[in-house]
Amino acid sequence: MAASRDALRTFKKTDFPVSNIRRFLEPGPIVLVSSAWKGERNIMSMGWHMVMEFSPSLIGCFITSANHSFDMIRRSKECVINIPTVDLAAKVVGIGNSSGRDVDKFAKFRLTAERASKVGAPLIRECYANFECKLVDSSLINKYGLFVLEVVKAHAATSPKYPKTIHYRGDGVFMISGENTSRFRRRFKPENL
Amino acid sequence: MAASRDALRTFKKTDFPVSNIRRFLEPGPIVLVSSAWKGERNIMSMGWHMVMEFSPSLIGCFITSANHSFDMIRRSKECVINIPTVDLAAKVVGIGNSSGRDVDKFAKFRLTAERASKVGAPLIRECYANFECKLVDSSLINKYGLFVLEVVKAHAATSPKYPKTIHYRGDGVFMISGENTSRFRRRFKPENL
Predict the structure, then answer these.
(1) Residue A160: is the preceding peptide bond cis (ω within 30°)?
(2) SS3 content of chain B, % helix, strand, coil (to 5)
(3) Whole-structure pTM over 0.90, yes or no?
């Protein structure tokens, strides 16, 4: 019973163009950030992030120094942004509630660490997409907790086309992503697609 | 017929705590940014933004210098972040397709400019929520197009509790916000709500 509750969907993934990761990030999902440093690995839940540039593929994200991941990412200068789907919601909350100081979250939440190709931080296999990132600007960390990351390699599931993601509102409330529509597509100027 | 197509819902709004605007912004909706400068007013559509702090209530957002709003916000040091609901989707696309250099977008898209209380930029009445913002850090505009804004006053509709928002994926595709759920709430540690 416990085993079947833990039987998560496995995604078949392929390389995804780094300049187009907005497809999954711009709609604003909670993400899981994985990191590694000196033989240790960790995961944090993160909701404060934004796309900053297509090429190079830049992401800005806020990480408080209270997080165990803060120093791991700052020192290793690498991390992976993983996109969890709604079936991982309980794990996302659990990951946000616990600290990597106390537990190995991969083990505790039965998530699979996979080797990334361009960074030392692990990918989370059970997530829909994984963006391997290098910390390219650390000058805003002290003032704003703002990490400027470059996505150097991206992996995304081939099906479904769009993941069902969870979006945090605070106060224990999630919005779950709904319908995807291109019915407004003909209204866009081609150069604005 | 045209009149009835243009008959948009009017929201009854009340003051909303600025430290809690994440409720509407963190899930990642497309927003409309209104500004005013030297007797001119403008609106732009924006998808690249993030919450950066609760108190002061900080938002980071990316605006390219190609936008007519770029200089208006940089010079006036003010703007309003407005949250449109899905019934405004066609207008949001039209606003993104046109430039304030050529048209008054309030007139063209039949949106109502309302006086804000703490900034000179107008609120958009037809939007679900309006966040009056001051530009508090312009030092990252040249390097990253990053405007750091402080929300100094917020207005939000009292009903529905959560707006049905549109979230852009690029390529002419919107994700429309789905179900809101607090079924994971009991899993959160109280201090993490």
Answers:
(1) yes
(2) 25, 35, 40
(3) yes
Residue among A165, A187, A190 nearest B175 (CA): A165
Is there a contact between A176 and B174 if contact means CB atoms under 8 Å apart? no
Best of B58, B88, B166, B173 to substitute, by most chain A Cβ atoms within 10 angstroms, is: B173
The answer to whether the Cβ–Cβ distance between B162 and A169 falls below 8 Å is yes
Q: How distant is the Cα of A85 from the closest Cα of chain B, in angstroms?
A: 14
Contacts of residue A49, defined as CB under 8 A and 6 or more positions apart, other chains included, come to: A25, A31, A59, A60, A61, A62, A81, B50
Asked if A188's CB is within 8 angstroms of B182's CB, the reply is no
Closest CA to A170 of B185, B120, B130: B185
Instruction: Report residue A140 as tokens.
Output: 């805003």
Taking residue B17's Cβ as centre, other Cβ atoms within 10 Å add up to 13
Question: In angstroms, how far is the first alpha carbon of chain B from the final one?
Answer: 47
What is the identity of the amino acid at B36?
A: A
Kindly state whether A26 is in contact with chain B, defined as any CB-CB distance less than 8 angstroms.
Answer: yes
DSSP state of B186: G
pLDDT per residue over B90-134, tens digit each? Answer: 999 999 999 999 999 999 999 999 999 999 999 999 999 999 999
ipTM rounded to 2 decimals = 0.94
CB contact under 8 Å between A193 and B170, yes or no, is yes
